[in-house]
Design brief:
Blueprint (H helix, E strand, L loop, with lengths): L1 H7 L6 H10 L34 H8 L8 E4 L6 E4 L2 H13 L6
Antiparallel strand pairs: 1-2
Length: 109
C-alpha cells in the first residue's frame, strides 16, 4: 500500500506519523485535525516518507517492507479493536471502512 502511494506520488496520509508530529509540536493529538498540523511528520500535507522513523519497527514489519505483498491497495484502516487492517483500492470502500472504524472507536482519527 505504501509503495503504491509513493509510486503514484500521492501523500501517504498515515495517521500514526501525523499523531507523532502533533506530539512533537507540543499538541494534544486527540484534539487535532491531522491534516492541519504543521509538521514535517504530517503525511497529509507532505509527500514521501517522514524525516525520521516514528518508532522502532519489529522484524515482521521490516520483512514486510522489504517483501511487500503484491496488490493494488492505496488505503488501509483498522478493521477491528485488535488492530487488524483492512486494505482497499476503492475510495468508496475506504470511506465505509473509516466510518465503521470511527463508529466502533477502533483508533481512527
Amino acid at each position: 500500500m505504501i509503495y503504491n502511494r509513493l509510486a503514484a506520488g500521492d501523500p501517504l496520509q498515515i495517521d500514526a506519523s501525523s499523531y507523532y508530529g502533533a506530539i512533537k509540536a507540543g499538541l494534544d493529538p486527540a484534539k487535532q485535525d491531522y491534516a492541519k498540523v504543521n509538521s514535517p511528520y504530517n503525511l497529509y500535507t507532505h509527500k514521501g516518507l517522514p524525516p525520521t522513523p516514528i518508532s522502532n519497527p519489529g522484524s515482521a514489519a521490516m520483512s514486510a517492507a522489504i517483501h511487500p505483498a503484491p496488490g493494488n491497495w492505496i488505503y488501509y484502516v483498522n478493521s477491528d479493536a485488535a488492530g487488524h487492517l483492512y486494505f482497499t483500492a476503492s475510495d468508496t470502500d475506504f470511506a465505509k471502512a473509516v466510518a465503521r472504524c470511527r463508529a466502533n472507536h477502533w483508533g481512527c482519527a
